[in-house]
Amino acid sequence: MRLLGKQEIEDISVGAALLGTGGGGDPYIGKLMALQAIEEFGPIKLISVDEVQDDALVVPSGMMGAPTVMVEKTPNGEEAIGAFKSLEKYLGKEIFATMPIEAGGINSLLPLALAARLGLPVVDVDGMGRAFPELQMVTFYLDGISATPMVIADEKGNTSLLNTIDNHWAERIARNATIQKGGSVMMAIYPMTGKNLKDSGIRDILQLEEEIGRSIRVAKNNNHDPIEKVLELTGGYELFNGKVMDIDRKTETGFARGAARIEGLAEYQNETMELKFQNEHLLAVKDGKVACVTPDLIAVLDAETGLPITTEGLRYGARCVVIGIPCHPKWRTAKGIETCGPGYFGYDVEYTPLEQLVAEAKGVL
Amino acid sequence: MTIYRIGIDVGGTNTDAVLLDDNYNVISETKSPTTEDVSVGIYRAMREVIERSGVSRNDVKYAMLGTTHCTNAIVERKRLNNVAVVRIGAPATLAVKPLIGVPDDLREVLGKHVYIVRGGHEFDGRQLVELDEAHLYEIANAVKGKVDSIAITSVFSPVSDKHEKRAAEIFHEVLGEKTALSLSSEIGSVGLLERENATILNASVVNVAKSTADGFVNALKEEGIYAKVFFGQNDGTLMSVEYAKRYPILTIACGPTNSLRGASFLTGKTDALVVDVGGTTTDIGVLINSFPRESSLAVEIGGARTNFRMPDLVSIGLGGGTIIRLKDDGEFTVGPDSVGYKLPEKALVFGGDTLTTTDVVVALGIAEIGDKEKVAHLDQEVLEKIYAKIVESVEVAIDKMKTSAEPVPVILVGGGSILLPDKLEGASSVLKPENFGVANAIGSAIAQVSGQIERVFSLDELGREKTLELAKNIAKEEAVNAGADPDDITIVDLEDVPLAYLPGNATRIRVKAAGSLVRKVEEGVTEIS
Fold first, then answer.
1. What local confidence, expressed as pLDDT, does residue B194 receive?
2. Strands B180-183 and B149-154, sheet pairing
3. Summary mean pLDDT of chain B
4. C-beta atoms of A183 and B122 within 8 A
5. Taking the model in full, what pTM does it have?
6. CA distances (Å), B24 to each of B7, B233, B237, B274, B411, in order?
C-alpha cells in the first residue's frame, strides 16, 4: 500500500491522457475532482492486486454520458457513493475497494476521487490497459464477468439498479436513464471478487500512468527527450515523426470518426502516415502499410513537450511523434480481437501484433 | 467640417497613437515607451499626436483606447476588486469547488467569499432544482460591506440564464446598484469551470476598468477634447465606456487584435495571416473576413483556464530587442529574453552593449537604423546563420497557425517587422503596408462596434431557420446597445454546432454582428460615467 498525493495525481492524469490514445475524455475534470478530494479527505490509498483477499468485493466506478454535460454540470462527488451504497445493499456485502474500469482519460481519475471520499483503497488494476468506447470492451467481459448488477446515480440522489441479460441491454437501458438524469451520471459496474481481479485485471496500470507522467515532467525540467523514456516504460516503438497536414472529421452515431494525414520530418522525410480514429486512434498506416492497429495502442505526442495530443486537439501544422504500444496479451486472444480488433471498428485490416509489424518494417522478418 | 478620431494602443513596450480623418487617412502618428503607470504614457501619446497634426481639438470627436490595464492587474494580482464568488449548481458541482484549478496566489486573492447555492438547469433547459432564494439573501447580507463585485455562475446558464438573472435581482435589492455584478451567461460558453473563472476574473477587474475609463475621459477633457470614448475589445470591435466597465475582461488581448484589424485595413486583405513583431515577442494571428479568428480551445489568463472569446494567437519570444548570445565555439542562442523597451540604449547600433536581432539585420544590410559601423566587426557567416534561424522560427510559427498546406498572404506589422524578409516559406505573398509600425493604433481607431451572442438553443421549438434568425436579431440588438448605427449592421460571423449525444436538437449558436458607429455626435459633450 502506498499513498497518492497531489503530484501523483498530476502525473497520473498525463499518463491517463497518453493511454487514452487520443480519446477517453479530457482527464482535466477528473483530475480536479481528485485534487479537491485529497484536499478535503487526505491522500489516496493505492494497493496492489495481491493485497486484495480472494473473496473481497471490488467495484469499478466511472462516468457515463455526454462529456459536454460533464464539463458543465460537474459531479458533486456523492453520486458514486450513492451507487456503491445501493449496490452493497443489493448484494448484501461491503465493498472492499474500487478501481478504474479503463486506464485512459477521465475514467482513470474518477475512482481516485471516490476512494478519497469514501476512505476506500484503490486497487492498481483496470480492465483495458487503455481506453475503449463501449461497456463490453473490458477484459472482465472476455473472462465472462457480468457488467450487472450495476447502478447508475445522479447528483439529485436518484439511483437505478440494473440487472440485464447481457451487456448490450445494459448499455441500452443505462443510456436512456442517463438522458433522463440530465445527460451525465456516475456508475458502479462489473462488481467482482478479488479472485476475479487476479485472473482478469490488468495490473499496475496506475503506477505505469504515474511513471509516464513523471518521466515527461522530469524530462521537460531537465531538457531531456521525453519520448525516449515513455517508450522504455511502455515497451513501445516510435512509429513516425512528422507534421499534421490534413484532418478529416465527421460525427457519426455519436462518435467522432476521422482520419489524419501526417507528413514525415527528419528521418521520415518523404514518408506519410495516416491515422484513423473513432474517439481513440485505432489504425496507423505508413506509406500504405499497417504500422499499428487496435487493440495495440497508438498515441500521438507533441514532438517538443512529449505531452499527448487528443484527436480533437489534432490540427494542421502540429509537430508530433506517433508511438505504438503493445496491448495486454488478453486482447490478442481470438475473443479479444473479435471484441475490439480492427474488424469490430469497421476497418478492413487483419490484426497483426505491433512487434511483428515493426520487425517487418525493419526487414528483419 | 472634418471629424477626426484618435486611436491609442498600449503595448508591453510601446504606447502608439494615431490621428485619423473621416476617410481614415493617417494625419499623424506617434510611438512612445509604455510607462510604468500606463496612464502617463497614454496622455503623453495623445497630446503628442494632436500637437503634431495641427488639428483643432474641437474637431476630434472620437477617441478609442486599446489597453492592457486589466491584463496587467490580473497578471500582477494588483488593484483587484474584493469579489464574492457565487455558483448556482448544488446539489451538482460540489466535487469541484470554484477556483480549485487556479494558481494559489490568485485563489488567495479572489477566493475569500465563495458560495455554492442550490439551483441551475439541465442541458435541455429543465430546472436542475429550484433556486434557493433564501440562501442568496443570506449570502447578500453576509457579504454586505465586504465585497464590491460579485461573480455569478449557474449551471447551464448558456441554455437558461433565469437563475443568474434572479440572483442578480436579489443582490441588487440587498446591496444596491453600486455593487458590480458579473453574470457568466454574458461572458463565456459551455464549460462551467472555465466560464466561472472568466466571470470571476471579469468581476475582479471592474474597478481597474472604471478608473482607466474615468482617467481617460478626464484626460481628454483636460486637453479640451470633447469626444465620444470607446474601448477596444478582443474581437476587433469597440465597446462603449459603460460596456467596458461591465465586461472589462473583453479588453484582454485587444492589442494583437488591433494589429490584425489594422493590417487588414492597411492592405485591403480580408483573409491573411498577420505577423506582428514587437520588441519582445512576435504574435501571429489569422484574419478571416477582416476579423481575427477566435480560439476554440480554453485559454489561460493569469494561470486560470477560461473559455470566453479570445483571438487565436501564437506568440514566440522573438522581437527587435531579442538578445543574441555568441559562444566561443561559433554556436549561438536567440533569446528568449529581450532588452525590451531599452532597445534604444542597449542595442549595439545605438551605442549599447548588447547584441540584439536589430543589430543582426543592420549588420546584414537588411535594415538601416542606428550606426552600421558599430556592428561591422561581426562575422558575416555567423550572422547569416543567426538570421536563418530567426526567419525559420517565424516560418514554423506561421505554419502552425495555418489550417492547410495552401500558401496564404502574410502581412507584416509592428515596429520589429524590419527583421523579416520579403519572402517567407508558406506565404503566397508578404506584404509590408505603410504605417506598419502603428497598425495596432490604426486598428483601434477604425474599429466598428459589435454585438455577439453565444448560447445553446433547442432547435425543436422554432426550427433551425427561425432560431438562427432569432439569434441574429439578438446579436444585432447587442451591437446597437454597444453604439452601432442600426441602419448599418452586418452579420460578420455565424456558427452553429450541434451538441453530441444530446436529444432535442440542442445546438450551440454563435453570431456576431458589427456596424459603424452612430454618426450623430452631440457637440461639446464628453461621455462621463
1. 95
2. parallel
3. 89
4. yes
5. 0.88
6. 11, 20, 16, 20, 19
Q: Which residues of chain B from 148 to 187 reach within 8 Å of chain A, CB to CB? A: 155-156
Residue B408, amino acid: V
Nearest to A68 by CA among A177, A183, A174: A183
Question: What's the rounded Cα separation, in Å, for the pair B78 and B80?
Answer: 5
**Nearest Cα to A189, choosing from A153, A225, A237?**
A153
Q: Does A157 touch chain B (CB under 8 A)?
A: yes
Q: Which 3 state secondary structure label does DSSP give B372?
A: helix
Q: Provide the residue count of chain A.
A: 365
Q: Measure B182 CA to nearest chain A CA, in Å.
A: 18
**pLDDT one-digit tens code per residue, B382-423:** 999 999 999 999 999 999 898 888 899 999 998 888 899 999
Residue whose cell numbers read 486583405: B269
Q: What is the reported pLDDT for A135? A: 85
- Pick from A156-165, A311-320, B172-181: least confident: A311-320
The three cell numbers of residue B201 are 476574473
E strand spans, B39-108: 60-66, 83-90
Q: Three cell numbers at B202?
A: 471579469
User: DSSP H helical segments within A20-151, as ranges?
Assistant: 28-41, 67-70, 79-91, 110-118, 139-142
Residue B36 above 80 pLDDT? no
Q: Is B130 an interface residue toward A (CB < 8 Å)?
A: no
Element containing residue B426 per DSSP (H, E): none
Please name the residues between 268 and 297 in chain A that touch chain B, using a CB distance below 8 Å.
none
- State which of B240-244, B284-288, B289-293 shows the largest mean pLDDT: B284-288
**Mean pLDDT, chain A, integer:** 93
A240: nearest Cα among A222, A267, A258: A267
